[in-house]
Structures are given as structure tokens and as C-alpha cells.
């Protein structure tokens, strides 16, 4: 190739390149003026919204953690209170049971003592009645013996009459 053809070919390429650069610069200015501003503004709004959403999510997470901790503390307190209530109920039930048993034992002892006293009194009354009856029988027998001399048959009749008199 000759130098002239080479120079003519490079001149064509150089002219196209300059033209492309000028068109590119114009397009770049048009894009910057009409598209870059609104796109940048939209991207900034989006960035602010994402930041707000992240802050809101972090705040909500912290609030949720606080609520979880409060609920866990309340649950622990309820469990402790329930345990205390059960313990108190068992203690009260045991005390009531012990008191009922003690009262029943005291009542049984007093009933036993009263029964023993009543039995002793009944025995004493029965002995006194028996002594009185024996004394009356002795006096009656003595009166009849003195009144007449009795044969064996008379004595038997006298005892039978006396026994018959006791039954009536």
C-alpha cells in the first residue's frame, strides 16, 4: 500500500472517530441533563427509604426483644407464684390435717375418759344398789327367821318367795 492510501484510510477513520466522540459527548450531555438527574434523585429516595426501613426494622427488633424479655420475666414470676401458692396450699392442708387429727385424738381421749368415769359411776351405783338389796334381803331373811323357826322346806319356800318378789 502506498502512503497516500494509508493516509487517506487513516483520515477517514480519524474523521469518523472525531465525529463519534462529538456525538457521544452530545448524548452524554443529554443523558446527564434529562436522565441522570431523575435517576439519581430516584436512587437517593430509594436509598433513604432503605435506610428508614432498616432503622425501623432494628427498632422493631429491639422492641420485640424487650417484649420477649418482659414476657419471660412475667412467666418466671408466674411460675414462682404458682409454686408458692401450691406450697402454701400443701402447708395449709397439712396444718389442717394435723389439727383435725389432734382434735379427733383429744375428742377420743375425752370420750374415753368420760366413758371410764361413767362406767366407774355405773359400777359404783350397781354395787351400792346391790349392797342395798343385799342388806334388804338380809333384813327380810332375818325378820322371817326370827318370826318362825324354819324347816329346810320352809327355807326353800322363803327363798323362792323372795326371788319371786325380786322379779316383780
From TrEMBL:
Q: In its keyword annotation, does this UniProt entry include Transmembrane?
A: yes
Q: Where in the cell is it found?
A: Cell membrane; Endomembrane system
User: What parts of the sequence cross the membrane?
Assistant: 18-37
| Chief site of localization | membrane
**Family to which this protein belongs:** Belongs to the ATPase B chain family.
Q: Which PANTHER family match?
A: ATP SYNTHASE SUBUNIT B, ATP SYNTHASE SUBUNIT B', CHLOROPLASTIC
Q: What does this protein do?
A: F(1)F(0) ATP synthase produces ATP from ADP in the presence of a proton or sodium gradient. F-type ATPases consist of two structural domains, F(1) containing the extramembraneous catalytic core and F(0) containing the membrane proton channel, linked together by a central stalk and a peripheral stalk. During catalysis, ATP synthesis in the catalytic domain of F(1) is coupled via a rotary mechanism of the central stalk subunits to proton translocation.
Q: What is this protein called?
A: ATP synthase subunit b
Species in which this protein is naturally found? Lactobacillus hamsteri DSM 5661 = JCM 6256
